[in-house]
Design brief:
This protein is mainly α. The chain has seven helices and no strands. The chain has two domains: about 55 residues, no CATH class; about 90 residues.
């Protein structure tokens, strides 16, 4: 491929590789002109390329965040709320949680967190179980995504 097939930036970079590092700035500019390279044009093209990349990618985090939010909301909608269960079932499940029947790590943490709490309303227990259900589903989703990698 000859120099005419390359863009101004590629030609500039190729020419810079061939120039002595001890060359003065004026000598460098003269050398590039003699090779038919328009430095200003190459710099402008490089700036356009960088600006376009920045425009396209500067808001990529927002797209990713919106996608994760939509995924989270869909996951949350698919979980039945414990507030819809009978108070007896909520109490029974909460006791299971405290005694480690949801998993040892949940039981130890829940027992420690609620050891000084004498009375909790059924609604508070249901809210805690809702959060636990959601966290469990998020963990499953994340583990599934990690296994695919």
């Amino acid at each position: 491929m000859n120099d005419k097939d390359n863009g101004p930036v590629q030609n500039l970079l190729k020419a810079l590789e061939e120039v002595s590092p001890s060359e003065t700035l004026d000598g460098l500019k003269q050398s590039l002109r003699e090779r038919g390279i328009d430095v200003d044009s190459a710099v402008q093209e490089a700036q356009r390329t960088v600006n376009q990349y920045v425009r396209e990618h500067r808001l990529a985090w927002r797209t990713q965040a919106r996608s994760k939010l939509a995924q989270f909301l869909a996951l949350k909608q698919g979980i039945k709320s414990w507030r819809e269960e009978s108070p007896e079932k909520v109490q029974s499940t909460f006791e299971d949680l405290l005694h480690g029947r949801f998993g040892a790590e949940f039981g130890e943490q829940a027992a420690m967190a609620f050891r000084n709490k004498k009375e909790m309303t059924t609604d508070d227990k249901a809210a805690l179980l809702d959060s636990l259900s959601l966290l469990t589903e998020i963990e499953k989703l994340q583990n599934g995504a990690e296994e695919k990698k």
